[in-house]
Amino acid sequence: MPETKNNILTILGEQIKLGESKEVNFDVANLHTSSSVNVPVIIERSKRPGPTVLFTAGIHGDEVNGVEIVRQLIAKGINKPKCGTIICMPVINVFGFINLKREFPDGRDLNRVFPGSPTGSLAGRVAYKLMQDIIPNVDFIIDFHTGGSGRFNAPQLRYSKDNIKLNDLAKAFGAPFVLYSKNLSKSFRSSCFKLGKPLLLFEGGKSFHIDEAVTNSGVNGSKRILNHLNMLSTKFKASAPKKECVFINESKWIRANFSGMFKASTLIGTAVKKGDVLGNITDPYGKLNFAVKAQNSGYIINLNESPIVYQGDALFHISTKLKK
C-alpha cells in the first residue's frame, strides 16, 4: 500500500484527509487558443483506511463507452468507498475526446508512449505526469477501453498470463471473458506492471458508441471488485455474474477472403462449432455470396460491424484454446 503521512493523501499538490472528497486538476497543457484544459481527478476517501483503487478511461479519445462507465460510477455514488480511497479519471486524453479522435493532437497514441517524458511530446508528457503523480498513490487499477471503429468487442478483461495474481480479481469482476494477452511495449498496462501495480484492462463495445450491455458489464464488474475488496458502500449490492467467466489462452482472427458487402449472422459472445456459418460476403450485383465459416470451435469475442469489407479485413475474433 502506498505510504501516506498521518493518513493524508497528497496528489497533484493537494492534500486529501480520511473522510474527504476532492476534485483536483490534472493539468498538462492549454489548447492552441490559450484556453485552459481541466482534466478532473475525482477523489473519494472513507474515514476508514484501506486500499486505493483507480478507475481510468479515455486513454483513447474516441472510446466513449469507457468514459460512460466511469461517469456512472461517479454519478451513482459507487465511487464513495466504505473503506479506503477511490480515484476516478474518466477522460485522460481530453484532447482526443474534444476532437473526437483516438490520438493526441500530435498524432501520437497515448497508449504507446508510456512511461513518457517530462520534455517529450504532448502525449509523452501526459503519460509521464500520470505515472509520476497518480500511479504511485494507488494499489490497483481498472482501465476501461473499447474495440476499434466498426469492430465490437464482447465485454472482456485482458492481462498477461504471467500475472497470475490478477486471476482472483478477474473472477471477482465477473466479465464474460478473460483474454490472456501480452503486455504491449510502452503501454499503460506494461508500465504499471513494471511498477508492480496490478491492472485489469476492460474491453467492450466499439469506438464512438455507447452500448448498454457493455456499460452494465463494466459498472457491475466494478461493484463486484469493490465488494471483493470490502470497499463497496452498503447502499449497493454486487450481483453475481449471469455466467461463469471463460478464460481464453489463445485466439485468432478470421479474415475476409473477398472484398464486398458484409453481414454477420452470429451474435457476439456466442459459442460456435467448426464449420458454422458466421456471416456472408456479397457484392452489389447479386453475383457473389460467400459464406464465412468458423475454422474451429470457440467463442466469438469480437465481430466486424462494418457493412463494407476488403479482402484480408478482420471479421471475427475467435478463441482457439481455453484455460482448463
Describe the structure in brief.
This protein is an alpha+beta fold.
Describe the fold and architecture.
It comes from Flaviramulus basaltis. With 324 residues, the chain is an alpha+beta fold. Helices cover 19% and strands 32% of the residues. The chain folds into two domains: 220 residues, Aminopeptidase; 74 residues, RNA polymerase II/Efflux pump adaptor protein, barrel-sandwich hybrid domain (OB fold (Dihydrolipoamide Acetyltransferase, E2P), Beta Barrel). It is built from six helices and 18 strands. Strands 8-9-11-18-16 form a five-stranded mixed β-barrel. A four-stranded antiparallel beta sheet has the order 15-14-12-17, with no helix packed on it. A two-stranded antiparallel sheet has the order 1-2. The longest helix has 17 residues. It is globular and about 70 Å long. The model has no long low-confidence stretch (mean pLDDT 95).
Largest sheet features: 5 strands, mixed, barrel
Helical fraction: 10-25%
What is Rg? 21 Å
- Compute the number of structural domains: 2
Summed over residues and divided by their number, the pLDDT gives a mean of 95
**CATH homologous superfamily of the largest domain - what is it?**
Zn peptidases
The CATH class label of the largest domain is Alpha Beta
What is the subunit organization of this protein?
A: single chain
Number of strands: 18
CATH architecture descriptor name of the largest domain: 3-Layer(aba) Sandwich
Q: Which parts are unreliable, with pLDDT below 50 for 5 consecutive residues or more?
A: none
Q: Please give the alpha-carbon distance between the first and last residues.
A: 33 Å
In order across it, which strands form the biggest sheet? 8-9-11-18-16
Q: Bin the strand percentage.
A: 25-35%
- Our count of helices gives 6
The H-and-E topology, N to C, reads as EEEEEHEHHEEHEHEHEEEEEEEE
CATH topology of the largest domain: Aminopeptidase
Find the structural class using helix and strand composition: alpha+beta
Could you say which overall geometry the principal axes of the C-alpha atoms support? Answer: globular
